[in-house]
Amino acid sequence: MINFNNNPVCRLFGIEYPIIQGGMVWCSGHKLVSAVSNAGGLGLLGAGSMTPEILQEHIDKTKTETDKPFGVNLPLIHRQVAGLIEVVLKNKIKIVFTSAGNPAQWTQVLKANGCKVAHVIANTKFAQKAADSGADAIVAEGFEAGGHNGREETTTFTLLPLIRQSVQIPVIAAGGMYNGSSLLAAAALGASGIQLGSRFAVCDESSAHENFKNYVYQSGEGATRLLLKRLIPVRLILNDFAMQVIETETKGASVAELTNLLGSGRCKKGVFEGDLSEGELEIGQVAALIKKKETAKEIIEDIVHGYFKELERVCNQP
Questions:
Q1: What confidence tens digit (pLDDT) does each residue in 290-301 have?
Q2: What is the pLDDT of residue 231?
Q3: Number of continuous H segments (helices) and E segments (strands) in the chain
Q4: Which of 22, 103, 185, 193 has its CA 20 to 30 A from that of 244?
Q5: Domain for residue 212, yes or no?
Q6: Strands (DSSP E) found in 53-142
Q7: Is the domain of 91 the same as that of 235?
Q8: Rounded average pLDDT over 249-254
Q9: Where do runs of H (alpha helix) occur along 189-239?
């Protein structure tokens, strides 16, 4: 049987399948991370919603729940990023995915301490910066992705070949990734693996609120928008708050007005606390395909089996 033994992403991170769980704020705690890693993928703790003390707690719990590789996702704009990195280094975490910031600031520090570093980007300029900074891999995240996104609105299938032309290190596709067909299509465009956020964000082990999960299950095509482009672009599923943002942006609101509307704790309120009216509900376009409860293991098994099934179908086409 064909396997992933020679896959660059699997070799780099020591994992069975080239399937990465996105380090999503308020979703990616120890339960999800350990479940993904135990199933053969790579689980990432979402440090973006954690203090250093909380990250330490989740690392400790993850280590008791899995002996497989796992990592930490670090948004570099986090106000306590230095403290989070101190926790990562103290615990000898070997895999770090960085995002939302300048990779030159911390990549060499992490690598000097034995970390494999992947950086999330949305355009060729920052892909080259990440490679020049010494990153071991790049996550090419297209416009379809949930959460914070690129202003260029470049789709994943356009972004992948652009990135593949500009860097030599392994590329991981993100944005719109859902099943085995996604993995095969991404591979055809030069990716060595995929990173999924949305499907894992609403699975059984995710720490997201059940209200949020059910809202995603009930969503359909066209249910999300890329908003707040004048601040930090973010893809949201439509609710009362998202409609307020759309109305405010349509009126030509200033950055200060948008900042005031956003306030603080919006994502926690929506995703973690389940306020479907006033919360910020971050999810990708692929939400339209997610219709049922499932475990992280079931997701990974579905992707792997679907990949080989689709590969056989394509190879046998006349």
A1: 999 999 999 999
A2: 86
A3: 14, 11
A4: 22
A5: no
A6: 70-75, 95-99, 116-121, 137-141
A7: no
A8: 91
A9: 198-201, 210-217
